[in-house]
Structures are given as C-alpha cells and as structure tokens.
Amino acid sequence: MTATTPPLIEKTRAQLREEIQDRYAPFTTFCADFFGMTPEELLSFERGNPHRDRARHIAMYVARRVFQRLTLQQLAAIFHRNSHVTIMRAVRKVAGSPTLVREAVSMAKALDAHSRTS
Q1: DSSP H stretches of helix in the chain
Q2: Rounded mean pLDDT of 2-8?
Q3: Which CA distances in Å does 3 have to 6, 8, 9, 57, 111?
Q4: Closest C-alpha to 59, from 14, 22, 25
Q5: What span, in angstroms and rounded, lies between the C-alpha atoms of 58 and 9?
Q6: How confident is the model over 23-82, as pLDDT tens digits?
Q7: Does residue 35 lie in a domain region?
Q8: Quick check: helix, strand or coil at residue 90?
Q9: Spatial separation of the C-alpha atoms in residues 89 and 87, rounded to whole Å
Q10: pLDDT of residue 16
C-alpha cells in the first residue's frame, strides 16, 4: 500500500501575492496620488527617477508603520517586489533622513484623514 499525496489545498505563492496586491491596492493608489503619479509609476521597477524613487521609499516606510502585522515579505508583495530586503532598505533610508521622515509623517497624516472620510 502506498501513501497518497493529499491534494494541494494551499494557495500558491503567486496567488497569495496577487491577493495581497489586490487587497492593498487602495493604499498604493493613495500613495501614488499623494505624490502626483500613477500607481504604475509608483510600483515601477525603473530606477533613476529621484521623485519616483523617493515616493516609493516613503510609501514603503509608511506601509511598514501602518501595516505592522504584515511580514516584510508581505509588504514587498504590496509593492510588487520579490525581496523583503527592498522594504528594509527603504525603511532604513527614510529613517536616516529627517526630511524624508517629515514627508512620511505628512503622508501618514493624510492617509489617516483619508481613511476617516472613506
């Protein structure tokens, strides 16, 4: 008698990532609007645009503070990234700059006000 493998009932990693991206799309849309860009621009993999890069880092920093129950890997999925290290680097970069922290606080306050009216 051979043991049979139970059918897979767990979701694939890709399905979980897609669910996370869909669930937190309003957050990424808010962040993009806050910085005057589209969500596609905010989530873009392109580098070298200082405004977009700064906006993405601040959004990741705020996400880390707002969604404290999410793992770094789940946060990375929100921003369509594969590695949690991206979130760690963004958080460190923002935390190390008083100017970026002020922008992050401003965005977090706007997010709070937005969520109260929605």
Answers
A1: 13-23, 25-34, 39-43, 50-66, 72-78, 84-95, 98-117
A2: 58
A3: 9, 15, 17, 49, 52
A4: 25
A5: 37
A6: 999 999 999 999 999 999 999 998 889 999 999 999 999 999 999 999 999 999 999 998
A7: yes
A8: helix
A9: 5
A10: 86
Residue that has been written with the tokens 């043991």 in this structure = 3
DSSP 45-76: -----HHHHHHHHHHHHHHHHH-TTS-HHHHH
Q: What is the reported pLDDT for 56?
A: 96
**Residue with tokens 């680097």, as numbered in its chain:** 89
Contacts of 35 (CB under 8 A, 6+ apart): 42, 51, 52, 55, 58, 59
Q: Residue 8 domain-assigned?
A: no
pLDDT at position 95: 97
Answer with the residue of higher pLDDT: 52 or 116.
Answer: 52
Name the residue among 37, 29, 31 with its Cα closest to residue 61. 31
Range of the domain at 39: 13-117
- pLDDT at site 12: 82
Q: Tell me the CATH number at 52.
A: 1.10.1750.10
